[in-house]
Amino acid sequence: MQKNKIAEYIWEIPPDQKPGMRVPARIVASHRLLEQMDEGVFNQVTNVACLPGIRQYAWCMPDGHWGYGFPIGGVAAFDMEEGVISPGGIGFDINCGVRLLRTDLTQDEVKPKLKELIDSLFQSVPAGVGKSGFVALDRKGFEGVMVEGATWCHQNGYAWESDLERIEQKGRLPGADPSAVSEKAVKRGIDQVGTLGSGNHYLEIQTVRFDDDCDRETAGKLGITHDGQVTVMIHCGSRGFGHQIGTDYLQSFGPAMKKYGIVTNDRELACAPISSPEGRSYFGAMSAAANTAFANRQVITHSVRQCFGKVFGRKPENLGMHLVYDVAHNIAKVESYQINGKSTKLLVHRKGATRAFGPGNPALTNVFLETGQPVLVGGSMQTGSYLLVGTKEAEELTFGSTLHGAGRVMSRAAAKKRVRGSELLHEMEKDGILIRTASFSGLAEEAGFAYKDISEVVDVVHKVGISRKVARFWPLANIKG
Q1: Which of 188, 253, 318, 429 could form a cystine bridge with 314, CB 3.0-4.6 A?
Q2: How far apart are CA 303 and CA 121, in angstroms?
Q3: Domain chopping of the chain, boundaries
Q4: What percent of the chain has a predicted confidence (pLDDT) above 90?
Q5: What DSSP character marks residue 9?
Q6: Which among 481, 146, 165 is positioned nearest to 323, based on CA atoms?
Q7: Average confidence (pLDDT) over 406-421
Q8: Does the annotation count 404 as an active-site position?
Q9: Per-residue confidence (pLDDT) for residue 95, from 0 to 100
Q10: What does DSSP say about strands 58-65 and 25-28: parallel, antiparallel, or unpaired?
Q11: Catalytic residue (choose from 322, 404, 426, 462)
């Protein structure tokens, strides 16, 4: 498939490369990262470019790899009247996302108590397939979580008031509709609030390392002040609840496509018009799952604060355990952009991609109007993670979007053939990274060599200008599901 280099680190597949393409497909990548992407990525992003009502471009970020329907790292915006909504453009783990907590603690202070701390966290935050949390909810209470998200957590003692200002959309998407959620989805999700899950989800104790091109001034404004400062990163989503919602609507969208005369190149891109009853119903269910994911990460944050307070004998407030930010990377949201010189409302699908609004954007809370929105880029448990900030360039170029992580270069099955989880655990502990895992098999799937070089993927978005480097974090201890 022809890929034209139209700018440094931006490649375009023109519409004449596949019948039915309505817009070009664009990939943000270095030459080496482009070569690491398999043909499935290019096939998927050009399939997205064929969907009804898509505007300007179908995008794939440098961490892009093959996914379900959309590539992981895919971004596409659809006209609210003519466009479609697709579960394959959002993902099964709706509002999988990352949040970052800062502390006043230093690496030297934490190291002597690191084993005690990670053991306490592993006991307090359920990890693994099907694990239940400690928050007991009846149906009415769970509907409150679906509708209110992080606001429910604040009302019920699991959040500080300051937390809400530091979560995308304040941790609550409007339009959540519990009536659009199946009983099977409710059954899967009602006891999972406050749990980590499995796969690539993690809870990581980290230490700050500033690269030479990091913006220390902006970092300071976000509470990241010096090398050796200890932070905590949480990566998880809506668990089985979101997965069931995705499954339910993928099944129901098949008949809907026949009803509305929609044909796609891939059954995984099952969709419905945004303005249709089916589309509105899925949007309401998706928003309910997104709010539940915000609440899930917030309850985990409460547990993390309690554990740190217990281990260090000080209140979490006195440890400076403030939220830096919480960002979603599997979601669809209504946002306005300039199309042909006119402000136009669009439904932006981000699948393995994060929002990256620049300074002054009215959608940001006052806390971030000067710095721009924080962007949290989770890496592998062996290579560290990054804090970036969004830019005006992202709003103008990529529908206010950037990457979400390092991106896989090896399948989970291939990773397990290359290393045993028990061996990887001992190897990492020799390197000074403590590991607690619910599954050695799951641990092997997440080995560092299965991912792209996070420094390279972050460098690309930094140089393109769709987000800027602020700080880097190095793992001290990690909990895997």
Answers
A1: 318
A2: 8
A3: 4-409+451-480
A4: 93
A5: T
A6: 165
A7: 92
A8: yes
A9: 98
A10: parallel
A11: 404
